[in-house]
Amino acid sequence: MYTSQFQTLVDVIRERSNISDRGIRFIESDKNETVVSYRQLFEEAQGYLGYLQHIGIQPKQEIVFQIQENKSFVVAFWACILGGMIPVPVSIGEDDDHKLKVWRIWNILNHPFLIASEKVLDKIKKYAAEHDLQDFHHQLNEKSDIIQDQTYDYPASFYEPGANELAFIQFSSGSTGDPKGVMLTHHNLIHNTCAIGNALAVHSRDSFLSWMPLTHDMGLIACHLVPFITGINQNLMPTELFIRRPILWMKKAHEHKASILSSPNFGYNYFLKFLKNEPDWDLSHIKVIANGAEPILPELCDEFLKRCAAFNLKRSAILNVYGLAEASVGAAFSKLGKEFVPVYLHRDHLNLGERAVNVSKEDQNCASFVEVGRPIDYCQLRI
C-alpha cells in the first residue's frame, strides 16, 4: 500500500532523481520516441529552474503554461515545483475561446508570467492585438517567455515548501464565464496520488500510457504524477497525435507492454471508428483502462471490450471511475479486476429527492449508467 511517505512534490522529485533505469517515454510519432530517465528529468528541470531564476521569476509567482510539447511541459512543471513557483496549466486551442480563457485567467492571478511554445505565444499576442486587449498585449511583451526545445544549464536554488503550501492551480473549463481555479496543495496531491496508486494496485512492473492532455487533471495528476510518485515507467503521447492516429494508442500499448491506460468516453468511441484490420496485437498485459472525466456509456464499454477481445484484452480491463478537480482528481474507483456493472434507470425518475426506478435496458424510458465504485483512500463521500 502506498502511503504519504513524501510530504511535498519536491521530496518526490528529489527521491526519484536517484532512478536512472525508469522514467518517461515521450511518444511524438509512430517512429519517433524519446526516453528520459527520472534522473535526467531532475537534471533538466534543475537547469530550466536556474534559467527562470536568471530571468527574474520568484517563488510563489504564478506561471501560466501554454506549452504544446509534452517534454517541455514536464520539464517546466518540475522546474516550477523545485523553485516554489506555481504552475497554472491552461488548455491550448486554435479557436478564440481558448485565447479568451488565457486572458480571463491572467486577470484572476496576482503576479502572472506566461511560458509558451513560440507559435502559441504568437497567436495569443495576435488575438490580444486584434481584440483591443492592449494592456494584456503589453503585459505579454514584458511577462512572457518562449520555452525552447533545448537543455538549459543554469545554476539553481531550490525552494523548500511546506506540505500545506500551494503546489499548482488547476482551472475549470471556464466555457460559460470566468474560469475557476482549484488551489491544490502538496498535501492534496501527495495523498490523492497515493490513493490512486492503491486503488490501481500499482506494482513496480506496471507502466502507464496516456494521450490525455497535461493541462487536464486526469492527464497531469492521474497519468503523470501517479506513475512519478510510485516510481514506475510512463509513456506520454500528445493528444494531437491521438486525434490524428487513434490506432497508435493500442499499438503503443502493445509495443511497450503498458498495463495502465485511461480515457474519457469519447476516446473509446473515436478509437473504434478507426479500428479496422489491425496487426496481431497482444493486449493481455493491460490490467486497467480507467474510464472517467465524462459521462460513461455502458453500451460503448461493452462494444470496446468485445472488439478488443480479439487482441486478448480482458473483460475486466475497463475500470469506471469518478473524479473532480476539487478532489485533486480521483474520488471513487470501481473494484479492480471485476467486470464493469451497468445500471439502467427510468429516465423520468431521476429528479432530486425521487427514488430511482430500475428498468431493463430494452425499456424505451431507459437511461444507462455505470457503477463507479467506492471512495478511494483519504476521500469521503456524503450524499
From TrEMBL:
Domain AMP-dependent synthetase/ligase residue range list: 33-342
GO biological process: fatty acid biosynthetic process
PROSITE patterns for this protein: AMP_BINDING
Superkingdom in the source lineage: Bacteria
Gene Ontology MF terms in the entry: adenylyltransferase activity
Coiled coil: none
GO cellular component annotations of the record: plasma membrane
Pfam family for this entry, one: AMP-binding
Family, as annotated: Belongs to the ATP-dependent AMP-binding enzyme family.
Name used for this protein in its record: Bacillomycin D synthetase A
Organism, as annotated: Bacillus amyloliquefaciens
